[in-house]
Amino acid sequence: MENPDSDNSGQSKKDPYAALRFAEFRSFLGIRFFLTFAYQIQAVIVGWYIYQLTKDPFSLGLIGLAEAIPALGIALYGGYVADKSEKTILLKLILAWMFVCSLVLFLITLPSLAENVTQTTIIWVIYSMIFFIGIARGFMGPTVFSLMAQIIPREHYPNSSTWNSAGWQVASIAGPAFGGLVYAYQGISVTFFLILVFLIISFACTFFLKKRPPQFVPKESIYESLSEGIRFVFRSRMMLGAMSLDLFSVFFGGAVALIPVVASEVLHVGAEQFGMMRAAPAIGAVLTMLIMARHSPMGKPWRNLLLAVTGFGLSIIGYGLSTSFYLTLVFLFLEGVFDSVSVVIRSTIMQLLTPDDMRGRVSAVNSMFIGSSNEIGAFESGLTARLMGTVPAILFGGSMTLIIVSLTYLKTKKLVPLGLKEIHTPE
Fold first, then answer.
1. Torsional sign, CA 135, 370, 328, 292
2. Range of weakest confidence among 102-106, 192-196, 317-321, 356-360
3. Whole-number mean pLDDT of the chain?
4. pTM, rounded to two decimals
5. Region for residue 389 given its phi and psi (left: phi exceeds 0; alpha: psi -120 to 50; beta: otherwise)
6. CA distances from 137 to 68, 70, 75, 346 (A)
7. Domain at 19-208+219-423: CATH code
8. How far apart (Å, rounded) are the C-alpha atoms in residues 277 and 346?
9. What are phi and psi of 107, to 5 degrees?
10. How far is Cα 208 from Cα 75, in angstroms, rounded to an integer?
11. 321 CB contacts (<8 Å, ≥6 apart)?
């Protein structure tokens, strides 16, 4: 493990910049930031582009499903590969794969090409590339999770989780706003070209990471290795509870995926306001992350997690009831506030409880619970919007989130009083 750049290698655990003192972690944040920035821009313009072609909210749900199916299907194998592979090489291969997919999206949406192919062909090519990006995500999650643990000392896991999540959220603020504005004023081709540029920058950051030998050398079959990771997760009540809570709450609270419909049909606003709506949750999240860098939510992690998801559900309901653009921004902002607290608590719990030689496989199980819950939630929201209408679908999702939190509380009362020290060892 490298030493921090400063002479404060023995800094207090309360140092809000502890993780940032490690050069490799800063490079890691660069990878995550530019990848997320590009990915968020792409999510914005693909969603808007598909909806403009189809005028069907269900098509937005299909985007999420197209990504979630391969991500879930490959997740366990992705975790196994991440554990037994050198992480930096694997990360470079994943980023190269995602670049190729985005390049195809750039080409298929070029006006000169789009005029010569049918709308159906364009739509199916887009869905196909999203599917292949989903495959990459099945490997990305376990690889990134394992890599971060290798470049940061254990005592700084809570701080690194906060900065990692904050970097993701900053990119999520800038990405949708930037993508919406560029798309509105320069068109889809220029926007996709910039996405490719940001992916190249993310790839370049990988060359500042040191290569390390894998900490897991499989001695049994793939099936036995994967089963070991699954058994570990199910032995830890807090880890399993956190994964389950997020899965079901985000599944029913995925109404944020309907923002293109709300912007167009409920609020009657254009691409610029749409970009602001997409950015609002991330603005709330990143401001909360900065606060959490100094004031950790890990004092009573399970209690705080339940409160955060409750706030998330209430924000979704407010978002569904609002007919004012600015009030909608407030509720989306609050959704990001509460979600960010949940993200930091969950990621810290996972980092603390997972042995080094099982990080890829445990992260893969987490991906099956959480990694694609947003996309599956988007599909659920798109389906219910078609069946119920947009506003009833949003209200249904928020209400179901509150029901899930209530049931989880009744099942996990014993975890509520636990502090950070009590979760260092699996139950």
1. negative
2. 356-360
3. 80
4. 0.67
5. left
6. 9, 8, 8, 19
7. 1.20.1250.20
8. 26
9. -70, -40
10. 27
11. 391, 395
